[in-house]
Design a protein that fits this description.
The chain is α/β, with parallel strands linked by helices and about 110 residues long. About 50% of the residues lie in helices and about 15% in strands. It has one domain. It has a three-stranded parallel β-sheet with strand order 1-2-3, with helices on both faces. Helix 1 packs across helix 2 and helix 2 packs parallel to helix 3. The protein starts with 6 loop residues before the first helix and ends with a helix.
Length: about 110
């Protein structure tokens, strides 16, 4: 840590980011969340945000989630694919190298637009 680092500012900024992310999750019904290569942070933040918005009464049930990674990990399996779609929607594991999956996904999206 740099001696001039202000922990309270970092914490406040992190909290603001979390609120922005959670606001996006509150509007996710009928939408898609894709986790690309994050085995810990995004799965944990996403499941907490989803729990908050559902507890606040937002109807976020019909969602499609996908975990793109080179290996199957516990947190993305449970917190991105399984738990969020247990009330509706679909979850996918796509296990392959990112240099194959990301360009392929991009092409599919562009072709359908």
């Amino acid at each position: 840590m740099h001696p001039e680092c202000d922990g309270s500012t970092i914490g406040k900024t992190s909290y603001e980011d979390f609120k922005i992310f959670t606001d996006s999750v509150s509007r996710l019904d009928g939408g898609v969340l894709i986790n690309i290569g994050s085995s810990v942070i995004l799965p944990e933040v996403f499941i907490k945000s989803l729990s908050i918005v559902r507890n606040l009464g937002f109807n976020v049930r019909n969602i499609t989630t996908a975990n793109l990674d080179m290996f199957r990990h516990y947190r993305p399996d449970v917190n991105v694919v399984t738990r969020p779609t247990s009330l509706g929607g679909r979850g996918f594991h796509i296990i392959e190298r990112h240099e194959k999956t990301v360009p392929s996904l991009y092409k599919l999206i562009i072709d359908r637009l």
